[in-house]
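Researcher: Structure for this, please.
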Amino acid sequence: MSEKTPGVDPEIQVQGLHKSFGDNEVLRGIDLEIGRGEVVCVIGPSGSGKSTLLRCVNLLEEPTEGRVFVGGSELTDPDVDIDAVRRRIGMVFQQFNLFPHVTVTENLTLPQRRVLGRGKAEAARVAAENLERVGLSEKADAYPSSLSGGQQQRVAIARALAMGPDVMLFDEPTSALDPELVGDVLAVMRMLADEGMTMMVVTHEMSFAREVADRVVFMDGGAIVEDGTPAQVIGDPRHERTRHFLSRLLDPARAEVEEESPRKGEKAGKAD
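Model: Predicted structure, token format:
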């Protein structure tokens, strides 16, 4: 990976972040800092607040309380030019969200022209460069419906990169893919990490987190439980909640047995 000094020159800062949906408090005072060029993987069980945190970083979700900074600009400042700050942030979702009625190239050029005001020729050049980066130059004139899920996700990554972001946010980018298609998407993300892109990745791909992340953040119940290197958080977790989550994630057979045991107990109780 590229040389970098984690924690220096923070690109993302989250301070005292709370988010509630009605009476449901999803985030409970999150403090997080991601240095320029750092790759941070956020892991945790469903409902732990991982995706909500990610969406708050570019204000797709408005925090109930707290402050968010990207590149020194405060997104939660009422006077901020939110569109200008968002142009520095690339976002890749679980679903690919490609325009089905236009070609791959047009999926990359339309946002550039409409949001950044680039001319047709420049937008096409940037699109071609980024399709090459994700290994899909030969699909430039194809329509999304003709691509596999993995190829569509790589196009979605190329589309985000074509906007020239300083930060890339990934929300479970491989969760909607068949297992055999996951590797190509993760390879593109590894390439971005090697290039020094600042990345915040919500994921269940532990091999990716182990190999690529500078830090791993484990969340549960809307709070950060552990934050450290992959060796610390995945290899030698301090908290029982982290250990329990990882044991179930890394040993699905054990998780299945644990889920079946209470059901058997309930049946036995009724029989008594």
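Researcher: Any notable elements?
Model: Confidence is low (pLDDT under 50) at residues 1-7, 253-259, 261-272. The chain has ten helices and ten strands.
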